[in-house]
Amino acid sequence: NDETNKAVKVAVAKGDGIGPEIMDATLRILEAAGANIEPEYIEVGEQVYLSGNSAGITQDTWEIINRNKIILKAPITTPQGKGYKSLNVTMRKSLGLFANVRPVSALHPYVETNFPNMDVVVIRENEEDLYAGIEHQQTQDVVQCLKLITRPGCEKIVRYAFEYAKVYGRKKVTCMVKDNIMKLTDGLFHQVFKEIALEYPDIQNETQIIDIGAARLAANPQNYDVVVTSNLYGDIISDIVAEIAGSVGMAGSANIGTNVAMFEAIHGSAPDIAGENMANPSGLINAAVSMLAHVGQSLTADTIKNAWLATIEEGYHTADIYKEGVSKRKVSTSEFAEQVISRLGRTP
Amino acid sequence: NDETNKAVKVAVAKGDGIGPEIMDATLRILEAAGANIEPEYIEVGEQVYLSGNSAGITQDTWEIINRNKIILKAPITTPQGKGYKSLNVTMRKSLGLFANVRPVSALHPYVETNFPNMDVVVIRENEEDLYAGIEHQQTQDVVQCLKLITRPGCEKIVRYAFEYAKVYGRKKVTCMVKDNIMKLTDGLFHQVFKEIALEYPDIQNETQIIDIGAARLAANPQNYDVVVTSNLYGDIISDIVAEIAGSVGMAGSANIGTNVAMFEAIHGSAPDIAGENMANPSGLINAAVSMLAHVGQSLTADTIKNAWLATIEEGYHTADIYKEGVSKRKVSTSEFAEQVISRLGRTP
Ligand SMILES: CC(C)[C@H](C(=O)O)[C@@H](O)C(=O)O
Ligand SMILES: CC(C)[C@H](C(=O)O)[C@@H](O)C(=O)O
Predict the structure, then answer these.
(1) What angle do CA B11, B16, B18 make, to 5 degrees?
(2) pLDDT digits (tens, 9 = 90+) for B108-149
(3) B236:A216 CB<8 A
(4) Which residue, A128, B40, B41, B344, shows the most beta carbons closer than 10 Å to its own?
């Protein structure tokens, strides 16, 4: 390996549904590229839930995670029913992964989109909001969920967004809130945004109400750069941005905390196509690229990213983005990985 | 007038910002078309707020509304600051306007859109959810907002959506929720949707998680027909649908209750262009068309709708939808109204 001597230990969750297939494809690419990582497999998700563990994760697994501090995670399936808590949310909250970073850019004309120039990073608050998981039943007919917003939570995510913009040379940060209705909660997010924006005079800032903001983002994504918003809005707009760029299957994400970081695709476990070797592993590949950059293996990250780009640009496409006349060949999950591997070393 | 003898009394709010201009345009068209209505003007919004009334509406106005039972309302401006309660929300809640109906269809090629075949109706729950307005500050740094969902609330809106589909010959109703996270609140909405769907075996039904649902709606709106969802999601996706069809300035909405109904554009008061005679009055015109149909003046409603369509199709466009090569002439708010009036009586 070109960058470090000691292998970085990574807790790897193969996930459910299409998880194992896309993880297999991703790990093969990492290995072929010489990523200096040492996977330690963890068992989370469906099987753990169904064994009677309502959180989908055991104490042993928490220990592995806390030891390794880096997680690469495929999507998991949470069984339906009130008894099961979302593992994604539990991990984000328990590990203090406060920032969910979701970059999306168009790959036009290789992947069709109406928005060839879009290049947006959604930076989503990842611990608070309606995701705090505080729900209760008041009467048989009345239920409530608490939307929790704190000043430290807002400060962490907003500062992260501006620092991200600074480090990556981005020009503008847009805040999206609904503070005409939620004056205290969304009002606090907006207030903190205004305060912190003052510390970054070289970066433009703007605030939009989430309804019209999401609408303009969906209609003209090329007008956006970095978008910072609370948990639920970020969940919705990051899927929108990924889907209108071509496919939600292409986007990776980084869940960043002070001590631990977790990297995953933004899509779900797609049980309907599981086991068919047809899923697009690109989301997880991109997540793994972010992971390598995060642990200081930027050269390997770039090598994989370039090979992945070349594969897409040369038209080797999984079914979700395959298009007659644009694509060259429809490939399976594993063939896609082979195509990427065969292009390692290409420069863009 | 062709339909009723007794004029229908309508409480008319001219609104703030661009409100008075687009209301003036709309009322001129209604009058020219022979709509049998008798406006009674009400004073709500900015001036009322600034006179020291934190709700933006006086007791006298409530009496006029309760007497007339039909409201045509232009957008209003709520002054910034925690002391002012949203008038929209107050009116919807106080008057029991439980269903917010927002139809959007493409007018391609007259108004440019990537989605020439889209034709979606968003039916948004209008009284509950985070809009219930229950917010509190727990410590200086911790604030909360309560998301309230009730079974009767879910039943009313879901039944309304299926009845709407039945009456208007629509084929499918899609429910959007986030019940993988909010198992009690969004879970209840989903549960009620499943129950009521059984009563309408001739109408297809499906449920999507709001993140991927909103993403697919933004990427492929032509795959949707009627969408039913809770208040905040409906707020966001209705703006998305309107904007990707061409402009949020085109869509009207009906707020339907058991005794009272209120008709309004879905856009805001746009203070930045107020007084310039350039706003698009189409949203309010379409709202007025819904109002006429609601009070039994369907022939007049159709007459106006057809004249409006002809105006758009013949390329007389306000600035927001004006496009070189597509539009014929850029018109002001008042000129647009004149163009519509000159086409009354046209058939499509
Ligand atoms: C699976 C689900 C809990 C998760 C979320 O809502 O955050 C997913 O949609 C995501 O965006 O990562
Ligand atoms: C003005 C605002 C309170 C309102 C809402 O959030 O409902 C508006 O966005 C709408 O969609 O009618």
Answers:
(1) 105
(2) 999 999 999 999 999 999 999 999 889 999 999 999 999 999
(3) no
(4) A128
